[in-house]
Amino acid sequence: MTDTLSGILPVVPTPYQDGGGVDEGAMARLVEYAIRSGVDGLVFPGFASEVEHLTAQERRDLLGTVVHETAGKVPIIAGASAETAEDVIDHGKVASELGVRWLMIQPPKSIGSAAEAVIAFLGQVAATLPDARIILQNAPAPRGSDLSPATILEVARAVPQVAYVKEETLPAGPAISEIMAHKPGTLLGAIGGGGARYVLDEYARGACAAMPAIEISGEHVELDRAWRSGNQAKAREIYVKTLPLLALQAVYRMRLTKHVMIQRGVLENTIVRAPTPELDELATADIDANLLELGIINRQEDLIA
Hints:
This protein is α/β, with parallel strands linked by helices. The protein has a single domain (7-231), classed as TIM Barrel (Alpha-Beta Barrel). 46% of the residues lie in helices and 10% in strands. The protein is built from 10 helices and 8 strands. The protein has helices at residues 24-37, 56-70, 85-97, 115-128, 149-158, 172-182, 199-204, 217-228, 232-263, 281-294, and strands at 7-8, 42-44, 76-79, 102-105, 133-138, 162-167, 189-192, 209-210. It has an 8-stranded parallel beta sheet. Helix 2 (56-70) links the parallel strand 2 (42-44) and strand 3 (76-79). The longest helix has 32 residues, at 232-263. The radius of gyration is 18 Å and the shape is globular. The chain starts with 6 loop residues before the first strand and ends in an 11-residue tail after the last helix. The relative contact order is 0.12.
């Protein structure tokens, strides 16, 4: 297993067949596209994978496809969040059977945001899965628990298997600064979320990686490499170009991701299970105009109305 994580770690969406079942062939194409784009790792399942709308068997089968198609080229982070520690452990055991040790876990809102409760929850998981390395996902309310930096630091000190924090509270920047300034040695770093809409601020504050959606992986990799090489001006130029699309992605979520992947020749439909706004003609035209500016669509006649 890779000892550290860094760079662009996109969340792989779940593709569906016209009949509504999951599409493992399309999942393989998504992974191939991401690897070809130069990503540094893959995350599945996450919020952007519609994880709450997948059965346990679908999760298992699709994670198996991701593992098979990745073929060890980059690390895989398995989403293992659930309402009970027992269910998290079950997800972790499935991942372990597939050779995946990185687990991303959001503590359930039902346990509250007190450090003691989170420590007890993650401590139970860590004790049962001693080989797992945990990424603590700190999502904002109302979906997440909005844990404070002080709570996260207390949890990291008490549960050494927590190796990273995916910090997504709003604003995430000050929280990342606080965590990086006081982190224990067992906590290797902070990872940005929020669809990479704030990635440069996160990187400037010491974040080591970002977990955006998958649709512009190549552009995010180019941004990441520019930043790491010291070319902040190029990184910002790429970032500014991506922002209009990412603003739309915040609204249309998986439908936008899947529409872009259609334009890239990877997917064939925008079917989702999660409640997600429909893409009407004007929204699609707006998205495609952004793709044209990003160079993903090269000619006006390529646009899908």
